[in-house]
Design goal:
The chain has 378 residues and is mainly β. It contains six helices and 20 strands. It has a single domain, classed as Porin. A 16-stranded antiparallel β-barrel has the order 1-3-4-6-7-8-9-10-11-12-13-16-17-18-19-20. A two-stranded antiparallel ribbon has the order 14-15. The longest helix has 28 residues. It is globular and about 65 Å long. The termini are far apart.
Length: 378
């Protein structure tokens, strides 16, 4: 046998092996994926208080906090997959981290998903935050009266379960361990959400509850209970929402400028008397898609203090123009009217760095805002 005839089968076998390895590698890559994603949201904000004080600033995060993140999944077979998400907030106006004490301040979790639903472990968004687009046309961001009250956004040490949607229903439950000695069960943050969707109709409930340690000076739980409904009429949606919460308290900026249970982590320490001040929140809003690219929305809401004189009301009007699937121009006009000694302030997806910082400019004042910006998603 000649040298050529001996080497030809070896070349053929090597080529077949290389092809097989390539096929296996391609299959492995098809079973696992990691995505880099993010948003950049910047806007010019003008605020005026009835005290006469004014503010003009470039702000971050009107509709969505500027962020970047990684999310991925791996096929585990039998219709199961491993999942994860790491997400970090950024102040795009100056390039600094949204939370300088954390690398991934927004989300950092790992999970397993399948036909049974999904289980996640780690720092996660709340069920309340996840339902924002069901509550009003702004997805409960800039211009939303509910957002001016403040919402529980995310918690550490969170164990969650998200069910598949069955007969229109989806259930989501969270239990964020407090990890405080001898008080973990009492101070843990518990969440439940139920969402029902049928044709153009959607109904739902989301709730967050957290308790103080024992003993405590004030023993009431901090809670945020929210029900919502919306109807898709073809050219837009009509939204109704109601919430009941006692998670509002005073800071040096105003009588309603803070929360008892942190909106981004923490526990209830049982030392704040405002836990007995309950608010009823009411809101109606609607939007209309004038063209495939342009949408307008309007909103009215009430923040009713059932325990005293810290009630407020607000209105807003907004326009959104899609330059592309990834880029949106927007403008929002809003007015927040504090009554009595109420001290609510406007808020976007991120807090406004230029917000009024003294009680004289906030408590009992009417605050008017005009905002215009651009949101890009990647």
């Amino acid at each position: 046998m000649t040298k050529t005839s001996m080497t030809t089968p070896l070349i053929i076998k090597a080529s077949m092996a290389a092809a097989a390895l390539t096929a296996c590698s391609t299959a492995a890559l098809a079973q696992s994926s990691v995505t880099l994603y993010g948003t950049v949201d910047q806007y010019v904000s003008y605020l005026r208080s009835s005290s006469g004080e004014k503010s003009l600033a470039l702000e971050d995060g009107a509709l969505t906090r500027t962020r970047w993140g990684l999310r991925g999944s791996e096929d585990l077979g039998s219709e199961r997959r491993a999942t994860f998400q790491l997400e970090s907030g950024v102040n795009a106006d100056d390039g600094t981290a949204a939370d300088k004490s954390r690398l991934f301040d927004r989300q950092a979790w790992v999970g397993v998903a399948g036909g049974f639903g999904e289980v996640r472990l780690g720092r996660q968004n709340t069920v309340v935050l996840g339902r924002g687009s069901y509550v009003d046309h702004s997805a409960r961001t800039l211009g939303s009266v509910f957002n001016a009250f403040g919402i529980p956004a995310r918690y550490d040490n969170d164990v969650s379960y998200i069910s598949p949607r069955v007969a229109g229903f989806l259930v989501e439950a969270h239990y964020a361990l407090a990890e405080t000695p001898n008080q973990s069960r009492r101070q843990s943050v518990k969440q439940l959400g139920v969402d029902y969707e049928h044709g153009p109709y959607r109904l739902g409930y989301v709730g967050v509850t957290a308790g103080p340690p024992s003993p405590a000076t004030y023993t009431a739980n901090v809670q945020y209970q929210n029900v919502y409904a919306n109807y898709d009429y073809g050219q837009g949606k009509i939204y109704l929402a109601y919430a009941r919460s006692n998670n509002s308290t005073a800071t040096g900026a105003g009588n309603n400028a803070g929360t008892i249970l942190s909106n981004v982590g923490g526990v209830v320490d049982g030392t704040n008397a405002d836990v007995h001040r309950m608010y009823n929140l009411w809101q109606i809003s609607a939007d209309y898609r004038a063209t495939s690219q342009f949408r307008v929305g309007a909103l009215f809401g009430l923040l009713d203090d059932r325990s005293g004189n810290r009630s407020a009301s607000g209105t807003s009007l907004a326009g959104y123009y899609d330059l592309s699937k990834r880029t949106t121009l927007y403008t929002v006009a809003q007015q927040l009217r504090n009554r009595g000694s109420a001290g609510f302030r406007p808020a976007g997806s991120a807090g406004l760095k230029s917000n009024f910082a003294t009680p004289n400019d906030v408590n009992g004042r009417t605050i008017t805002g005009l905002h215009a910006g651009i949101l890009h998603r990647f």
